Amino acid sequence: MAFRISVLALGAVFHLLIPGNTPAADDIEKAAAVKEEDGKHLDAEGNPTFKFENDGTVDWYTFSGYRRYHSDCHVCHGPDGVGSSYAPALATTMKNLDYPNFLAIVAEGRKSVVGGKEVVMPGFGNNKNVYCYLDDIYVYLRARAVGAAPRGRPPKKADKPEGAKAYEASCMGG
C-alpha cells in the first residue's frame, strides 16, 4: 500500500509541474455522473462523483463519504467541510482540487505556510479508516463543493452495492 500511495503522490506532483496543467475549477456540470459501475458513479473524465435522485436519495458512496468524513476529518476541517480556525473549508477549496491531488494530499499529507505560520495536514495513508474510503470522502466533499449536497446528514441513501462490500472487506483485511 505504501508504494501505491507514493506513486499517487508522485503522479499528482508531476501533474502540477506541467505548464497549463492546473485543474479547472469544479462545478455541478463537470461533476455530473455519466457512467456507473456497481453503484459507483464517474464523471466524463473517469473521476469518482456523486449521484442524487430526484427524491433526495444519495448514492451509497456519497453517504459513506459523509460518515467517513465526520468520523475522521471534521475534527480539523469542521462539520460538513465548512472549515475551522486551523484547517481550510474543504467545501470551498475542493472546487480547485482535482482527484489525483486530493489523493496525494490525504495519503502523504502537506505542509504550507499561511500568514507566516506553518500549517500541517497529516498524512492518512496508513489509516485504513481513511485510506480505504478515499473515494467516498472525495465524492462527498465534491458534492459539498459544487453545491449539490446541503449541510447535514443525507436523508436517504441507496443500498450498499456488492462491489463496495467486497472492496471494503479486501481493503480492511476482513
TrEMBL record:
Which superkingdom, per the lineage? Bacteria
Any idea which UniProt keywords this protein has?
Heme, Iron, Metal-binding, Plasmid, Signal
Which residues belong to the signal peptide in this entry? 1-24
Residue ranges of the region described as Disordered: 149-174
The UniProt regions of compositional bias labelled Basic and acidic residues, in chain numbering, are: 156-165
* Domain Cytochrome c, chain residue ranges per copy: 41-145
Q: What is this protein called?
A: C-type cytochrome, methanol metabolism-related
